[in-house]
Structure formats: structure tokens, C-alpha cells
Amino acid sequence: MALSAFTRVVELGGFTRARDSLQLSKTTVSDLVQGLERRLGVRLLQRTTRRVSVTPDGAEFYERCAGILAELARLNGSSWDASGARRTRSSAIERQGRRASAPRR
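^ thats the sequence. predicted structure below, dont judge the formating
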């Protein structure tokens, strides 16, 4: 969950937007990211009262996380749409079924 929280903060540019996207409290999102930073022993985000920016280490870690999360979503048969809402395996199966049942030309 910490990886998801971190990537959403980076992608959406702040904790409030990430909170809304993940449907978690702002405190929870912040705690998840801080815990991740503690475990890694590196600052991922630079925070001020008005802004959140990604550190160089955070940018590198984000690229790796985004790839890992995308691969996990693919393996699990689910993915996240642009709004951050989860598309489930059944949605992927339904799309595949519609393609398979569509008339061929």
C-alpha cells in the first residue's frame, strides 16, 4: 500500500489529491509515505506547507515503483484507470469477451 500511496502522491502532485484518489485519510497517506522513507533510509519527497516535490532519489524510486505496480496489475488481471479507480479482472474479461464475440470482417 505504501508504494501505491507514494506513486499517487507523485502522479497527482500532492497528498490531498492522492488521498481522494485512494479513498484514504490524508494522515494515512502521509504515514505510509513516511514509513516507506524510513524503511528505505532516503527522502523521497520534499514537503513544504504549500508544495510537494519529488527528490532525485524519489524520482528514481518512482520510476521503479510505477513499473512494478504496472506489472503487478497486469499479472493480477487488474489495472488502475486514469482517475485512480481500480478496474477489476472481471472488467478485463468482459472486454475480452466483447472482442471475441464481435463480428469479424
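The mean pLDDT is 82.
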